């Protein structure tokens, strides 16, 4: 017979594993517990029984079978669902992780393995002095990319050794609050007291002296080029299917690292995930042109002027700008009217080219037989809202074309416009780009867009330097470090060196910040900028397609040819949801347009998070402070699995 007190206690044995480094101390500890014991009480009983004097504040229970943390210490074991067969590991929440940065440097630091990835990335970016952490995330290299790298490693003679920068003693790595970093909420930069250049907050984590400056420079500056050995190790996608493999490894921002199978000392990639860069304005980020004393002396006065100009620009921006310009934008809707060539593809690869009188008004293009007939009905009116705008330019051949892919009921209508010169092309191209987003030329971004296109054309219009042209062999340069493999196979090394030197002449006189911004603008002008690819199967289709996800649209692309089939704008999207049972994404747009697809190259949660993430980033405003609405991000990206 059992007494009523013993029967009512409902105690049971629970075997706990303690992750510690003390020799001679058992790691598996049995405890008698009850279902109404809360998690915090279980932690207290365990620490009292271990009898090891150390700081246990970073420890928490990891449930091995269910792959989850027991972080709500006020919950009881019954509420958590813990029973006698549960395998609980008492381990640290912050563990060492290796991160491969965008500048190809690898750092080793302590990261929270129990926080959601979104929060962990935010802490990492504070530690590494990277602003706008919401634009980045962690990427795990997929098996396909790792296999290709292993094949290359077998053929290589000597594997490239990798220098790892250890940041394990940093404040965030130790689980302590981070410094505000280079840019605090008042956007006040921290400057290096020696060189005067913007300093990384990581300099405070190292000892005084030359080593501090050296480690700071490693993180703050990227290498001018990658070595051929490093390039050989990198996974270089050749096709759209290869590019889709790269995006299969994005971690779920709403789950922790441990929940996604990341182990201590694993290596992940820290990369920009969302290609919508907030407040990318060089006027607010003034820095030195060079660290050399000669350059500092020669640019001292110009830097003072640059700071004053930046402050003046900021003052005008905060005050709302010139009121007369605002009134002018409201009352005056500009238009373009020019003779352009219309190119329409026909069967048997033939093209019909004919000159018409084109008029661009609002977001539409109308064309007429000639200028005199422009008062009547147009031959055709093209609405560019939601279309794809692709540049078709060859500056050397004086070819300035604009390819328009206009959505129609059964796919895309292709229209080619050909301009006569750079200025005409820049004006019409800028108007087409804005019209595709639903904006007119009255928008304040029209003139900057024109200047950006002209700058990009200027970079392509290489001006030959006589010395560089005559002595390319005297320049110590490895062209394969600057251009893609397809060009190294097509041209000789001497030819590529000369072409690179030609292009460099157009940016050699710029300041460092201006050159970087020009590079980003040129990158943003490329047709495939900001597209992340996934292989999907649309509902009702019998073949696989590629889905391109951008900051403002989705593009259905033919897997075989790479040609866009249909475009859907986020601005026209009414709602989207995921059927988690069959892993299908369904999206509803205006005008009763609905699509549904399953993702074949990655989990559908990744695409769901991409869509929600871009919508979240579109809510950012300069009027708000820099505190992110993390709850809103998880509402838009978390899903209901």
From TrEMBL:
Residues in PH domain copies: 341-437
Organism: Taeniopygia guttata (Zebra finch)
Name under which the protein is recorded: FERM domain containing kindlin 1
GO molecular function, one term: integrin binding
Family: Belongs to the kindlin family.
Matching Pfam families: FERM_M (PF00373), Kindlin_2_N (PF18124)
Key words of the record: Cell adhesion, Cell junction, Cell projection
InterPro entries per record: Band_41_domain (IPR019749), FERM_2 (IPR035963), FERM_central (IPR019748), FERM_CS (IPR019747), Kindlin/fermitin (IPR037843), Kindlin_2_N (IPR040790), PH-like_dom_sf (IPR011993), PH_domain (IPR001849)
GO biological process: cell-matrix adhesion; integrin-mediated signaling pathway
Keyword Nucleus: no
GO CC annotation, single: focal adhesion
UniProt entry tagged with the keyword Nucleotide-binding: no
Gene (name only): FERMT1
Main localization category: other
Compartments, as annotated in UniProt: Cell junction; Cell projection
């Amino acid at each position: 017979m059992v007494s009523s007190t013993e029967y009512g206690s409902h105690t049971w044995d629970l075997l706990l594993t303690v992750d510690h480094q003390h020799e001679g101390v058992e790691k598996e500890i049995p405890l008698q517990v009850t279902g109404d014991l809360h998690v915090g009480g279980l932690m207290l009983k365990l620490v009292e029984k271990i009898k090891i004097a150390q700081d246990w504040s970073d420890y928490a229970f990891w449930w091995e079978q269910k792959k989850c943390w027991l972080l709500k210490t006020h919950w009881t074991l019954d509420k958590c669902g813990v029973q006698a067969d549960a395998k609980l590991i008492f381990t640290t929440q912050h563990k060492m992780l290796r991160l491969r940065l965008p500048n190809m440097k690898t750092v080793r630091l302590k990261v929270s393995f129990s926080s959601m990835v979104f929060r962990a990335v935010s802490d990492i970016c504070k530690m590494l002095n990277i602003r706008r952490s919401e634009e980045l995330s962690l990427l795990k290299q997929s098996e396909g990319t790792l296999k290709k790298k292993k094949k290359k490693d077998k053929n290589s003679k000597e594997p490239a050794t990798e220098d790892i920068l250890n940041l394990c003693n940093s404040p965030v790595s130790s689980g302590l609050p981070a410094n505000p970093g280079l840019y605090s909420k008042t956007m006040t930069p921290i400057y290096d007291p020696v060189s005067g250049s913007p300093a990384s907050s990581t300099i405070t984590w190292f000892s005084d002296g030359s080593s501090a400056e050296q480690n700071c420079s490693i993180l703050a500056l990227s290498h001018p080029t990658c070595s051929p050995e490093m390039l050989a190790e990198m996974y270089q996608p050749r096709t759209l299917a290869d590019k889709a493999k790269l995006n299969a490894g994005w971690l779920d921002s709403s789950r922790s690292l441990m929940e996604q199978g990341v182990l201590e000392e694993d290596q992940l990639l820290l990369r920009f995930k969302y290609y919508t860069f907030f407040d990318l304005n060089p006027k607010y980020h003034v820095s030195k042109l060079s660290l050399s004393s000669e350059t500092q002396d020669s640019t001292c006065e110009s830097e003072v002027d640059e700071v004053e100009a930046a402050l003046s620009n900021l003052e005008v921006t905060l005050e709302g700008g010139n009121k007369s310009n605002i009134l002018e934008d409201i009352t005056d809707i500009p238009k373009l009217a020019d003779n352009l060539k219309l190119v329409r593809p026909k069967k048997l690869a033939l093209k019909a080219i004919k000159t018409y009188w084109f008029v661009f008004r609002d977001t539409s293009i109308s064309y007429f037989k000639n200028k005199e007939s422009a008062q009547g009905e147009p031959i055709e009116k093209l609405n560019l809202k939601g279309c794809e705008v692709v540049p078709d330019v060859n500056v050397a051949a004086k070819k300035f074309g604009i390819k328009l892919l206009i959505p129609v009921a059964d796919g895309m209508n292709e229209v080619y416009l050909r301009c006569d010169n750079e200025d005409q092309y820049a004006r019409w191209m800028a108007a087409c780009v804005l019209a595709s987003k639903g904006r007119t030329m009255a928008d304040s971004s029209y003139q900057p867009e024109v200047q950006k296109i002209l700058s990009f054309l200027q970079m392509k219009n290489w001006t030959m330097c006589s010395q560089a042209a005559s002595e390319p062999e005297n320049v110590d340069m490895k062209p394969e470090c600057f251009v893609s493999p397809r060009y190294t196979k097509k041209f000789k090394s001497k030819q590529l060196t000369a072409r690179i030197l030609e292009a460099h002449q157009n940016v050699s006189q710029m300041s460092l910040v201006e050159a970087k911004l020009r590079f980003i603008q040129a990158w943003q002008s490329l047709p495939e900028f900001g597209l992340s690819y996934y292989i999907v199967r649309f509902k009702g289709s019998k073949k696989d397609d590629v889905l391109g996800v951008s900051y403002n649209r989705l593009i259905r692309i033919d897997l075989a040819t790479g040609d866009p089939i249909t475009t859907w704008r986020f601005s026209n999207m009414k709602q989207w949801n995921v059927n988690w049972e069959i892993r299908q994404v369904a999206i509803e747009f205006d005008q009763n347009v609905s699509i549904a697809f399953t993702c074949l190259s990655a989990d559908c949660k990744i695409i769901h998070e991409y869509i929600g993430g871009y919508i979240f980033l579109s809510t950012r405003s300069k009027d708000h402070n820099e505190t992110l609405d993390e709850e809103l991000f998880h509402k838009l990206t978390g899903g209901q699995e």
